[in-house]
Design a protein that fits this description.
about 625 residues; six-stranded mixed sheet; about 35% helix; about 20% strand
Length: about 625
């Protein structure tokens, strides 16, 4: 999708006649069925006038122009793309990111600067980083830019209202590399920008090159598949055992069958914490990519997805997405769509921030099934921790059968976490009243899993820090029993929200929190970044991850009453607004929360109980 396409002379004419913004507005409405915002129209008018002047000044009269070009399978649109032949007569194209900024400040985030957008100062991607990612995305996913005799793609940013100052944040040393790949031009650098354009597209013939782009397909390149697949394959810990391998082999076999059968195939793989769902999913992703299949890995967790992208490198973002990424996807665009943590599926992909043009009438699970020839759902019904998460085996199966798909179900039982102790997870389920199991009592010595109840949060933290100092992975987590500050202190440090007597510690950073001090990880990287150990993690940053040792503060939002012999929920002690408003579901959602937190440890779990009666109940279920 693009809102405007034509040759450079037509673009100049439309702009001079003050028609360019109106044409974009009309095409926007035709495609999205509503009008763009006034601010977007003004942005088009201002920035494109500047580009028109630049194109005239550069004498680029035989070139192709695309405006507001939507990147395949995303909601992101390129501002400006110009085509032509370079000085060596090779077909070329340049992406130009247009910004109306006039000032920015430094940010401690690695790829960001601080500027005033959306009514506030916010961390935003450096323009060169942003446009460089667009370039990589197209080079990895659009056949016109990677197949034989491909179009050579370049990118740059143009800040036409911006005048650089000494020690400007835009030229911080951390951006040196990306500025070489995707240079940035300010208002004072019209001549360097003209030279950049002329060198790359100055020999014209741009309309023919536009046709090549328009007539080429979206398909991830083999180069990208090898990059992601080989990176995952290099991780020695991703080894499949027993029933994990059975599931893996079944999916691979079905993939080949599925492409010779018009009927879609849906896999539903159920397993509790530590049964290796993500291990299977990542192995499948690696080998499918290396075999040439267009495969995607999606979750409903920003923390989990962003951590995978961080580990595998930024180019993997093309294949690692979210459940709501498929609203605009065509039928069977993707060969295999692997959905990890599928219990986090929601009724719809749209929310109050979703633009009208991206909304569909389909349920989120239907969008996913529609997008892929083979869909694979990894799920744990008992990890539902928010009322708007509706993923379950029965729900997915019902929707798949309604779509006349072949449905294949598996259940994983072997425990690869909690030191391989099925008994510990079953005991947690039993003790929390989630599920009756044979494991009424738990014996640490017999199980080999180091479970301990401690007397204070200070001791709990000390034990976790000791494990970290021994080169073990460990995190401190808690129930959602304290406010979560929206902003850091003035110096960028986090506010100490979690307070128990003299114990005061910060939650992990909120998603998108601006102005963080250097060394404080973003919310999505709390579980992975070494400095995450200095904050207390909540359910939304811990779910999906595992550590050698888990430290859990069991709060007052859920307590056990010996007199009534049942678990009691206390909404007044919860600061999770969504869960607090879930009425009759509150107790079950908080139970699931603590089940998740208590099952994050591979080797051990240490717990501090704020309510002593609850602590006594847990101790009564333990053998000495």
């Amino acid at each position: 999708m693009r809102l405007y396409i034509g040759n450079s002379n037509q673009f100049i004419e439309d702009t001079i006649q003050n028609q360019i913004a109106d044409k974009l507005k009309i095409n926007f409405f035709d495609y999205y069925r509503h009008n763009p915002s006034p601010s977007e129209i003004n942005s088009w008018r201002n920035s494109l006038n500047r580009m028109c002047t630049l194109i005239q000044y550069s004498k680029l009269t035989d070139n192709g122009i695309i405006l507001e070009y939507q990147l395949p399978l995303t909601s992101k649109r390129l501002d400006f793309l110009i085509t032509g032949r370079d000085k060596n007569n090779q077909d070329s194209a340049i992406i130009v990111e247009l910004k109306q900024w006039d000032v920015c400040k430094p940010s401690n985030a690695i790829n960001e600067v601080l500027t005033y957008v959306g009514g506030n100062n916010r961390d935003v991607l450096h323009p060169s980083v942003q446009v460089n990612r667009y370039q990589l995305y197209l080079e990895d996913t659009h056949t016109a830019f990677y197949e034989e005799s491909c179009i050579k793609l370049s990118s740059c940013a143009y800040l036409h209202n911006y005048s650089a100052v000494p020690d400007d944040a835009l030229y911080d040393p951390k951006f040196t590399s990306v500025l070489k790949e995707s240079p940035l031009f300010t208002a004072d650098e019209v001549n360097p920008l003209r030279n950049y354009l002329v060198e790359r597209v100055g020999n014209g013939n741009g309309s023919d090159i536009l046709g090549r782009i328009e007539n080429s397909d979206y398909r991830p390149s083999k180069k990208l598949m090898e990059h992601v697949g080989s990176t995952i394959r290099g991780k020695s810990q991703y080894v499949l055992l027993d029933e994990q391998l059975v599931v893996y082999d079944s999916v691979l076999a079905s993939v080949k069958e599925g492409f010779t059968d018009k009927k879609k195939t849906v896999f539903i793989i159920k397993g509790g914490p530590g049964t290796g769902k993500s291990v299977i999913a990542i192995n499948l992703m690696a080998d499918l990519l290396l075999s040439g299949y267009n495969s995607h890995y999606a979750t409903g967790s920003k923390a989990f997805t962003e951590t995978l992208r961080e580990i595998l490198g930024n180019r993997s973002a093309v294949q690692f997405k979210y459940f709501n990424s498929y609203m605009q996807c065509k039928r069977d665009d993707i060969d295999v769509l692997i959905c990890d943590e599928a219990h986090r599926l929601r009724k719809t992909s749209a929310n109050r921030f979703t633009k009208a043009e991206y909304r569909t009438n389909l349920a989120q699970v239907e969008e996913i099934i529609n997008a892929a020839k083979v869909s694979v759902f990894f799920i744990d019904d008992k990890q539902l921790v928010k009322p708007d998460e509706i993923g379950s085996m029965s729900y997915i199966k019902m929707n798949a059968e309604n779509k006349l798909c072949k449905v294949k179900e598996f259940e994983l039982e072997a425990q690869f976490r909690c030191n391989g102790s099925d008994g510990f997870v079953n005991w947690i389920n039993n003790t929390l009243g989630i599920e009756k199991t044979a494991n009424v009592l738990f014996n640490t010595e017999e199980s080999g899993f180091d479970f301990r109840i401690v007397d204070s949060p200070e001791l709990l933290e000390k034990m976790i820090m000791e494990k970290v100092n021994q080169n073990q992975t460990a995190r401190l987590m808690a129930g959602f029993c304290w406010e979560w500050s929206n902003s850091p202190n003035s110096d960028g440090t986090l506010k100490e929200d979690v307070v128990i007597g003299n114990f005061r510690r910060p939650w992990n950073a909120r998603p998108g929190m601006p102005g963080l001090a250097k060394g404080i990880p973003s919310a999505s990287l709390w579980a992975y970044a070494p400095n995450g150990v200095n904050q207390v993690g909540c359910i939304y940053t811990a779910q999906g991850f595992e550590f050698d040792y888990a430290g859990v503060i069991f709060g007052n939002d859920l307590t056990y009453d010996f007199n009534q012999q049942k678990w009691i929920g206390h909404t007044e002690n919860s600061h999770d607004k969504t869960v607090r408003g879930s009425k009759e579901h509150f107790v079950s959602l908080v139970k699931n929360t603590y089940r998740v937190l208590l099952s994050r440890g591979m080797k051990g779990c240490y717990v501090y109980f704020m309510d002593k009666e609850t602590e006594m109940f847990f101790k009564s279920r333990m053998e000495k």
